[in-house]
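To illustrate the input format used throughout this study, we show a single complete record. The first block contains the structure-token representation of the backbone; no residue identities are included at this stage. The design step must infer an amino acid for every position from geometry alone.
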């Protein structure tokens, strides 16, 4: 299986980023780093799979179904179907329609099946900023360091490793710098927005990895203040699901819109969820 360049960069960074001991056992850290590297290589090499995911958000727990398929030429296709879970208190509340996210050869998309709206978000500043952060995180940093830990846990009756990865200050500063540069595009961001970005710089990442086959079952990301930035956990994983390119295409008859800036992304998202 041919890996994409971004996958190779990510694996390179996580495998070769030097270990920072802080008084911990270097052998244990090396083992944890190796387990994480094997997991990322495994996930990158999978041809097709489906996963049911529970993801935490500010609005509550979101349920997602994820399909991933790698075409014979190595191009990675992705489809997410997202819907908000009912509230725990059981009280009826209006839920947003199911939101579909696609990645295909034409770019990245957000779809509303009910309204038959498809939004192309590949050129949005937010998407570009995310790509920049990923590029920073995936680079093979010369002289940048990470600290690793490992412990054992059980997830859905599956014996797993709990791998913790902590980035040093240089990596944090570089992520923030790249994010601000991409979002500002030469203009000065407000102080309040810069402060919000600082609070969302990833410092600590916790991975849940199967001992048996190195499948990545979960990931949590934390800021320097200890706040959880993002979290997801795979509830069900099926390997080798028969998929084809059609699942990842925008259906015919959809009204297509292109988000040219961050403001339009926000407006279109409201339209998707409110059904206007």
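Output of the design step:
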């Amino acid at each position: 299986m041919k890996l994409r360049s971004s996958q190779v960069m990510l694996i390179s960074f996580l495998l070769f980023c030097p270990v920072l001991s802080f008084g911990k056992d270097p052998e244990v850290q090396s083992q944890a780093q190796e387990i994480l590297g094997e997991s990322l290589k495994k996930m990158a090499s999978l041809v097709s799979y489906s996963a049911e995911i529970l993801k935490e958000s500010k609005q509550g727990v979101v349920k997602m179904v994820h399909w991933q398929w790698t075409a014979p030429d190595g191009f990675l296709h992705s489809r997410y179907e997202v819907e908000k879970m009912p509230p725990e208190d059981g009280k009826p509340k209006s839920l947003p329609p199911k939101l579909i996210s696609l990645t295909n050869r034409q770019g990245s998309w957000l779809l509303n099946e009910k309204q038959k709206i498809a939004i192309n978000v590949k050129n949005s500043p937010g998407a570009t900023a995310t790509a920049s952060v990923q590029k920073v995180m995936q680079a093979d940093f010369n002289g940048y360091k990470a600290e690793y830990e490992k412990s054992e846990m059980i997830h859905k009756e599956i014996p797993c490793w709990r791998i913790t990865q902590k980035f040093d200050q240089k990596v944090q500063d570089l992520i923030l710098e790249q994010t601000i540069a991409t979002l500002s595009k030469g203009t000065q961001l407000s102080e309040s927005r810069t402060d919000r970005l600082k609070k969302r710089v990833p410092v600590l990442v916790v991975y849940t990895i199967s001992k048996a086959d190195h499948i990545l079952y979960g990931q949590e990301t934390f800021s320097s203040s200890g706040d959880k930035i993002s979290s997801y956990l795979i509830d069900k994983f099926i390997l080798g699901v028969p998929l084809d390119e059609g699942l990842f295409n925008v259906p015919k008859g959809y009204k297509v819109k292109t988000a040219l800036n961050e403001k339009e992304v926000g407006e279109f998202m409201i339209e998707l969820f409110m059904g206007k």
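Structural context for interpreting the output: Residues 111 and 118 are 5 Å apart (CA to CA). Confidence is low (pLDDT under 50) at residues 1-23, 136-142.
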